[in-house]
Design goal:
Blueprint (H helix, E strand, L loop, with lengths): L2 H10 L6 H12 L1 H5 L10 H13 L17 H12 L1
Helix pairs in contact: 1-4, 4-5
């Protein structure tokens, strides 16, 4: 699937689909690289960009609680810091 399709999957189980446009704007503002790569297949992204995508896909649902395991696996220390900054924000 492509980057945009992955983000749409984050909206798939939501009952209020009208939030998708609002959420997708926020994602693309916060992570312009995802907007730039929205037509690309997710597997073509670097490891850190894939992790950003997967985290933001989960955040599209506006969860109250997010359990994460292995989101920094095999990432460089710089990429790990970026991923954890996303999680914190």
């Amino acid at each position: 699937m492509g980057v945009h399709e992955n983000l749409e999957m984050g909206d798939f189980i939501m009952t209020n689909h009208s939030l998708f446009n609002t959420n997708i704007k926020k994602v693309y503002e916060k992570f312009p690289i995802l907007k730039e790569k929205q037509a690309c297949r997710a597997f073509t992204l670097s490891g850190s960009r894939q992790q950003r995508l997967f985290i933001t896909r989960d955040l599209m649902q506006n969860p109250k609680l997010l359990l994460l395991d292995g989101h920094s696996l095999s990432l460089s220390s710089k990429a790990t810091n970026e991923v954890f900054n996303i999680i914190k924000s």
